[in-house]
Write a structure and sequence with these properties.
The structure is a homodimer. Chain A is an alpha/beta fold. In chain A, 24% of the residues lie in helices and 33% in strands. In chain A, helix 3 runs parallel beside helix 5. The first copy, chain A, is elongated. Chains A and B meet through strand 1, helix 1, helix 2, helix 3 and helix 5 of A and strand 1, helix 1, helix 2, helix 3 and helix 5 of B. Chains A, B: One of its GO terms (cellular component) is nucleus.
Amino acid sequence: MSKTTRDESATDKKELNQFEQHYFTSYDHYGIHEEMLQDTVRTLSYRNAIMQNKDMFKDKVVLDVGCGTGILSMFAAKHGAKHVIGVDMSSIIEMARKIVDLNGFSDKITLLRGKLEDVVLPFPKVDIIISEWMGYFLLYESMLDTVLYARDKYLVEGGLIFPDKCSIHIAGLEDSEYKSEKLSYWQDVYGFDYTPFVPIVKEEPIVDTVDNNAINTTKCKMIEFDLNTVKLSDLDFKVPFEVEVKRQDWINGVICWFDIVFPAPKGKKPIEFSTGAHAPYTHWKQTVFYLEDDLECEKGDILRGELTCSPNKRNNRDLDVKISYEFEARGVDAKERSRKNENVYLMH
Amino acid sequence: MSKTTRDESATDKKELNQFEQHYFTSYDHYGIHEEMLQDTVRTLSYRNAIMQNKDMFKDKVVLDVGCGTGILSMFAAKHGAKHVIGVDMSSIIEMARKIVDLNGFSDKITLLRGKLEDVVLPFPKVDIIISEWMGYFLLYESMLDTVLYARDKYLVEGGLIFPDKCSIHIAGLEDSEYKSEKLSYWQDVYGFDYTPFVPIVKEEPIVDTVDNNAINTTKCKMIEFDLNTVKLSDLDFKVPFEVEVKRQDWINGVICWFDIVFPAPKGKKPIEFSTGAHAPYTHWKQTVFYLEDDLECEKGDILRGELTCSPNKRNNRDLDVKISYEFEARGVDAKERSRKNENVYLMH
């Protein structure tokens, strides 16, 4: 069933996202593909990266990891690939077959349904891997592990991965009103004390579009992955960050986002896109981690810390995130305003 | 992970609903309960119905089918019930235990985790059943079958069910722009023909909030269920409808919604609510079925037909809906404008 909304009430928008969860169980449903296709930042970046690299694609064998409706496979076939192999576990691949056929690519694109680890490719090696594997916060429910498996098993020496660079960024965020609403709601629910929900609400990052003006610190690139060399174990990481406050304000949480870069011909500017609040909307939005403290900040104050990210032990599709931070206030009431804390989060 | 949006772009709203599906797999997640609680039409109707019937609840044993966070159980306990038994399969019931305890109801409310069909109740019979079992289009993924099981096994002769009456309604709808956008999108997706999606898009009802002004016919109550007597087999039904056009316009589809009525003390107006476009927002919104035809209509034209609703044979949580209709145009160009058709839908 297709669920959309066209009215303007904020309540409505807040309410629909989660309630609808139990109506969808997988990528089988067309709606999710409609949304990914309609994310033009995402889809056009892939198309432009392939077009920009037509010479690299010419007569090459390409593997599309998690091909969905086959859009990236068709971009590659259209722009010179000798053959494209698309692999997907979801039943959506049956729709991809019809589309690929209808658009005259059935001799150029082979679609295989199954886990990449299980299927038998018609070529022993591929020259290029393309994949749109990214999840919220880059790594949440991402297919990166499958891309790395494909790289190690199938990619020729010197082969290319589209995209091949990605990075996660962080900044401080003012979000007093929404944070306090979200937490105070549980104090009095129709006259009852629902505060047992508060710790659960606190440990859940929020995926949301954030107004760039709410960011009140400098930005910090915490980590960068080069897909040509990254190892699975690198996705379990602890990284430092440090940002400087740009105005008198409150910091109620931190915001994270990721940037994506594609390979480029020598001397050309690579195609890239950002999922940050400063950049055009993407369906990945941004990820907000509320801090235990509300930090009263002045221009020049420093927020530094470490972010730890690891697969949850019990369910390795979930992510454990820990943010330990030291807020070093400077100037007015520096001592009173400084804080040190450690917060844990579960993305599930 | 909590996913919300606060920006105002229509694209954004359309895009987020379905993409987020794979992050939630059940009622275990707190967000869905937050949304149901924050649906005040829903929750206050239950509270008011219980308060209005305090005399009926006094010293009674109450069963709450699908108790979630325990809100309805606490309403019943607070307003006189001798004992309330809340049953839920989801892990959310562990949170309900904490809340019930914190609010001092642990001696009055017994919470049982499991399928109602499997759990052993501490009382052989109950005097009242309360349940918020309704799904989109009333019956989609609803818990009504479980409520009927509870009624037949546990409810004393003459016992009460809250709510006990529900009905499904239909009307004609103008929605040209969105319908044609939704269908035409697939004609050219980044230069490719994606029309194999069109039949799938057509057969999917849309759950959405609709502007009441877009309804351009009279309304028709198609079916009413009395929970005191309805049988499971009654939920597989075929019902006629007939509505009259109220203005010169286009009918692009039909809209359905449901109304809910609670028992009331003799001589008192019962508590009731509607999920129609004319009524305040609820998280159930309305359900739109686009018709194959776009009907050019004049005041006084008649749209009549039959709606068939049955559990899908392959997956009985899905609903097969069939709408056969005859559009009887009157007056200007009556013959040219009249149509007869039959459309099938799958709610899944």
